[in-house]
Write the structure tokens for this entry.
Amino acid sequence: MTSSFQKVRALTGMKDLLPDSSASWENLEATIRAWLASYGYRNMRTPVLEHTRLFTRGIGEVTDIVEKEMYSFNDALNDEHLTMRPEFTAGMVRATIEHNLLYDRPQRVYAMGPVFRHEKPQRGRYRQFHQIDVEALGFAGPDIDAELIVMLSRLWKLLGLNAIRLELNSLGQAEERAAHRAALVRHLEQHKSVLDEEALRRMHTNPLRVLDTKNPVMQSMADSAPRLYDFLGEQSLAHFQGVCDRLDDAGIPYTLNPRLVRGLDYYNLTVFEWVTDQLGAQGTVCGGGRYDGLIGLLGGRPAPAVGFAIGMERLLDLCEQQEAADSRPECDIYMVHQGEAAQRQCMRLAERLRDEGLRVIVHAGPGSFKAQFKRADNSGAHAAVVLGDSELESALASVKWLRDQDDKGQGQQEPVPFDQLATILKTRI
Ligand code: ATP
Ligand code: MG
């Protein structure tokens, strides 16, 4: 008997984690817990559901998250507006206030788990995704901002990731932002004709975010806008310098990005992002910064705080790519030769192949053809390029395909004119 029940599928943008991939998640989580413990950060778990007003207040009304990304509903049983957490910080701060965690000391805490945002799903952007959220609550100095960044740099090292770079900015304090904001609104008004709809809507409510635009038409307007950095007072500059000095001490390179404002309303002073070019459009792996006003804003006794969130899916994607890159063969082409003239010609040809983006090893030192071919095989190269006396004479290199199983057949050798070498090799690699 067939059932009339219509099959149910997972929701768009929400993924199942199946047994074959769970090991990489569990390994990453274990590495992360040990890494956090090594800096004295302790775990906290807060509910997935919170009152909607926690987020509208804590994140800010005029933000992408609150304007259009929250999963909110009315719980008819209690007549309450509830929201699935779109990030951790607001809930962590609520719990800190509710349980008076800062009563006698600051706290280093973290949480890990799913968060929910109604976004257009694509690579690195899902509707349920996972964050590692780290918060240092009750600390005011630049030392703790730097601690968080140094700590992240250690995590990338632990995971063998080297293609992540740090972008840094300071948002100053509320008064400094107010002065800058007034100047910025004047600038936006002068350039009203190039502003898109969203920018026009936000220019009075959240003008700083207008600069965070990806619209090419607005770039030069954004580039010439007054910079917040020029409005920072002595104390804000000293705080920022304090962070930079400690990053220099730790040998961590960074780029100052005056356009970095982050998506949330509550940041002040230090803000940072770790970005990579290896994840396509969704290149931000981790974002964070200081939010000294948030605890007071949510009804607690005012206390400074700083934190960051890592996107787990993006981090795992990056780890997988790194693994694939690490297991890449040593080179694309291994050049085999006999005699000094052939060796010198190999060096010349290799430079041309590298100009075309190929990775080439020219055999160095002594070695019979047989020994050299063995090296070529072990290198994992796609092809060996062979030059001996006859090849020099004819100006035809012998290309031996080492890995292909296609119609040419593995081990097939073919003569290729020197000047066509790059073109022919590139079509097959
Ligand atoms: P983006 O500019 O990519 O939308 P964001 O500024 O909204 O990022 P944050 O709120 O700072 O992101 O969240 C911290 C991290 O969480 C991001 O750096 C990213 O790695 C990850 N993240 C954010 N949104 C998503 C999503 N929809 N799916 C997967 N990961 C995400
Ligand atoms: Mg976003």
Notes: Residues 87, 117, 119, 124-126, 129, 131, 263, 282, 284-287, 309, 311, 313-314 surround adenosine-5'-triphosphate (ligand 1) (CB under 6 Å).
